[in-house]
């Protein structure tokens, strides 16, 4: 190892140490990354594990996840079982006791949120990958994101007491921005006349429910199960009888089944939509994300 | 036991019970094959994992293996671990699969292929090496991934043994240094391994190895390279080495395919005149799998194995393999 290599190594090491002067936040999803950045501002360094274009269900406890979480002062996770398959392994590998569940350094966004799609009866694997605690895709609802932002500001204030006012102020700005947009989204979505849609997975249910659009069916026969020929036929029937005009396909899923249903049922528009901040290069904020979904329902091209 | 099975996944007390059943069959394709021509439950494993208290986590698993047609449950793993006592350190004590290599650290039903490569069978057994002892591992406080693990176990026996063994002169001790990196949407982990044990007869066994795994969307590349040196007290040292390389990728929907290449050789094999004898086992194993979900999988493949040794008859072994794995209970962990 020559002198230059040593210098580079030490620079990288000390860069890491100095960056820890800020509250080092690691988030599981890109939505939570955007939220932590919005609330934390200059006082935090935020890194996310999942890209907005990735399906958050089917990931592994990658070494890069373990490394990031090992350096975190605060881990922001979604909860409701979204990360159940891999986050426990990441936590074990990270060996960072400050961010274990139940500690101040682990903020679970779904805590304090009322979930939807909670199964009324006990479910089993025969029902697919159903989350017993409810639908985990909470950040697709602007109203719930507001609640999470406020709760996150409180948690950051507890971790970094000197920044309490700063976090509250930034959370206030974030809440105001989102709140100001909701009425116009409601008006625009109502004007589309679309009252029912089919989606691939239950990802968009919070958004749809918030804006009085009924999720009339799913391309998956069961959550986490790829569309089968029989289910596609059933969904064609649902589309015809329910006079469905729009199928929204989350952009990390294949739209082949949607195309078949649209071709058979007729009069159906298919729109592929990002369902997370960062889901497409130009979706940088929650307002970008919700706006893009609204435009998709309106039929405007992105 | 019935009460345990009635627990729902992620049940009370944080207990996560699951059952993994691994059924497999190996069938002769040609007369020289050593396959058993039998389909059976190779292993049925029942596991429980849960926090024991505010500091420790516990893991307990029993497994029934097919041994001569009988399936008797035996203790597989029973260990206590914590990451809460010493910063950045995981401590583990009990009976466990030794934390070295790739396959030895992963339960067999989670392997990407049906049966063990030759080098793994000969150095670690059909499944893996487990023993009782303690292991410490640390993710070093660096801006890059560097994980150092070391362990010491009784070493009375080595591999899958049903006898008590004898106190070794030197217990089994091992170390592993792993690093990882990510590029684009892929990630890779590479590690160096060392293991040693000196038995009651003063025969020393040393294992030197490297393991590698890289994954990307729908694909995997996995390899291990091992060398074993055995130093008997009053005989020549022997050395053997072997490696395998496996690649797999999703074809379409739930269908995936894979191909494993492997090689094994006794480096120090000599004839009566002390001349080195060339010897090689080479195998190529294509496979295809259908994954209904992450909880049920069917796999089939063929092993084309060719064994050659200077001045000896060539041995060809063609075996058709099938495997059916299903998992009930808690959501299986998505390990890298």
CATH homologous superfamily (4th level) name of chain B: Porin
CATH class bucket of the largest domain in chain A: Alpha Beta
What percentage of the residues of chain B does DSSP assign to strands (E)? over 45%
Helix content of chain B: under 10%
Count of domains of chain A: 2
The topology string of helices and strands of chain B comes to: HEEEEEHEEEEEEEEEEE
Order of H and E elements of chain A: HEHEHEHEHHEHEHEHEH
What Rg of chain B is obtained from the alpha carbons, in whole angstroms? 21 Å
Task: Give your account of this protein's structure.
- The complex is a heterodimer of chains A (302) and B (336).
- Chain A is of the alpha/beta class.
- Chain A folds into 2 domains: 19-176, Nitrogenase molybdenum iron protein domain (Rossmann fold), CATH 3.40.50.1980; 182-298, Nitrogenase molybdenum iron protein domain (Rossmann fold, 3-Layer(aba) Sandwich).
- Chain A contains 10 helices and 8 strands.
- The longest helix of chain A has 29 residues, at 164-192.
- Chain B has a 16-stranded antiparallel beta barrel.
- Mean pLDDT of chain B is 92; it is low at 1-11.
- Chain B has 336 residues and is mainly beta.
Task: Quickly list its features.
heterodimer; A: 302 residues; alpha/beta; Rossmann fold; 2 domains; 10 helices; B: 336 residues; mainly beta; Porin; 16-stranded antiparallel beta barrel
